[in-house]
Design a protein that fits this description.
It is a single chain. This protein is α/β, with parallel strands linked by helices and 142 residues long. The protein has a domain of 86 residues: P-loop containing nucleotide triphosphate hydrolases (Rossmann fold, 3-Layer(aba) Sandwich). The protein has five helices and four strands; from the N terminus they run H-H-E-H-E-H-E-H-E. A four-stranded parallel sheet has the order 2-1-3-4, sandwiched between helices. Helix 3 links the parallel strand 1 and strand 2. Helix 4 packs parallel to helix 5. The longest helix has 14 residues. The termini are far apart. The N terminus is likely disordered.
Length: 142
């Protein structure tokens, strides 16, 4: 028996197995997400007709790092929100409008319904996106 064929991981052939990980919310550590973000920025073709949209409360140095990565300052759109509902709505709209090349959002914990809403918007969007949000696990009701 060929050991290499046993050690490979195959994508599930069903409905949920072949999504593009760059266009959905993926539960990985925040450090890994930051590494993926900077790898994407370094290889991404910068477009002058589309925005890089930053939603929520990003790290203080993010805008400077985006500019250092080659994004023009006038193409960076920062959306500050007052609460989590507004941040979710702004993220969904940024994904659905398709005028952003890249959407980066920092969200507070949100429910499963809202997570599905963001995932559907991300799947329908042409924009690359990175959603930084802690996992929300509702308490079981007995």
């Amino acid at each position: 028996m060929n050991y290499s064929s046993l050690s490979r991981k195959y994508a599930h052939p069903g409905v949920w197995g072949n999504e593009n990980t760059a266009t959905q919310c993926v539960n990985v550590s925040e450090q890994t997400m930051h590494q993926q973000l900077w790898a994407t920025l370094s290889t991404m073709r910068k477009r002058d007709d589309q925005w890089v949209t930053v939603i929520g409360k990003p790290p203080r140095t993010l805008i400077a790092q985006l500019i250092a990565a080659g994004i023009r300052p006038d193409r960076i759109r920062k959306v500050s929100t007052s609460n989590s509902e507004t941040a979710l709505w702004a993220t969904e709209q940024a994904l659905l409008i398709d005028n952003s090349q890249l959407v980066i959002a920092w969200l507070t914990p949100y429910s499963g319904r809202d997570k599905q809403r963001i995932q559907l918007a991300a799947k329908a969007s042409k924009a690359l996106n990175f959603i930084f949000a802690p996992d929300y696990q509702p308490a079981a009701v007995h």
